[in-house]
Amino acid sequence: MIELEGVPELIDPVMVAAFEGWNDAGDAASTAVAHLEREWKGEVFAALDAEDYYDFQVNRPTVFMDDGVRKITWPTTRLSVVRIGGDKPRDLVLVRGIEPSMRWRSFCNELLGFAHELGVELVVVLGALLGDTPHTRPVPISGTTSDADLARRMDLEETKYEGPTGIVGVLQEACTHAGVPAVSLWAAVPHYVSQPPNPKATLALLNRLEDLLDLRIPLGELPEDARAWQVGVDQLAAEDTEVAEYVQTLEEARDTAELPEASGEAIAREFERYLRRRDGGGPSSGGHATADGGEGGSFLRDGPGGRTRPPKPPRSEAETDGADAGDGGGTEPGDDPPGSPGSSDTEQ
């Protein structure tokens, strides 16, 4: 039995969730939910029992000192509530934690129990994966759902992904079976610079969430952090000729794939966001999921010991005398991996 004492009756509540781990490349998704919690001063009202879902040898508890007293923080998933004011106030139920080690179905059922008790009308799960995307271009954000009607109403893609999944995919499917509308927003993080934080990807997720829920999120210093991040990666890439050439190859592929949209809906969305912000005042562990469902890590820098090289771009047919040019990634020729330019399928 779920007891929610002290939680007021909520207004048009939406649950927004993110989980550290495989579904959180660059910590982009979990940082986005943490930003919402911090900016809107969320109050934690519930936490799942860590004993039920976590292997403490995988996600170890941490010890800290509080006024001279040693205390332990256990890895878990916490829920908080924030109220968004304005002409049309509404509440967000924020879920932030670590991908569980075990009993995923029970984990999702417990979260859905909270959603039912709170009257949640929509669940939005944020995720981030590693992809072949250049850091110099806008972060690709894919919005997916398993519900065909919801996809049409909210201008989302109906997911056709097949392959390995994480807690994001499992939770979205659990919502579908329970009759709770659910959406996933995925940011594609450059695989060659995957180490956290990635404020540019976090900012892109929050901008897409604004559009989805028709609200204004105070961004604080996040835009400036995103600019500083890009400048830093530009400098690191410029120091290595191979990396610079690889980034240029990704830029050309991305620009070619997105050329038709450059003057269409994308510009309209950005302009609408600009007007909305102007009218509302100034802005107040392990591998990660990849575009093909596998795991990946950082290529640009591999820690204090030095830097590893990125994979070389696929060679053309002429260079390979007709050999298969789609080398690596696990996709068939002609099938774009989810999250890549031209792709329409993203991990659930």
Gist?
This protein is 34% helix and 20% strand.
Describe the structure.
This protein is 34% helix and 20% strand. An 8-stranded mixed beta sheet has the order 2-5-6-1-7-10-8-9, with helices on both faces. A two-stranded antiparallel sheet has the order 3-4. The protein contains 10 helices and 12 strands. By secondary structure, it is α/β, with parallel strands linked by helices.
Percent helix: 25-40%
How many strand segments?
12
- Determine the strand fraction and express it as a percent band: 15-25%
Q: Kindly name the structural category.
A: alpha/beta
| SSE pattern | EHEHEEEEHEEHEHEHHHHEEH
Tell me, what's the shape? globular
Head-to-tail CA distance between termini? 29 Å
Write out the strand line-up for the largest beta sheet, numbering strands in chain order. Answer: 2-5-6-1-7-10-8-9
Can you tell me the residue ranges where pLDDT is under 50 for at least 5 consecutive residues?
281-285, 301-345
* Mean pLDDT across residues: 81
Our Rg estimate from Cα atoms comes to 21 Å
| Sheet with the most strands, sense and barrel status | 8 strands, mixed
- Count up the helices: 10
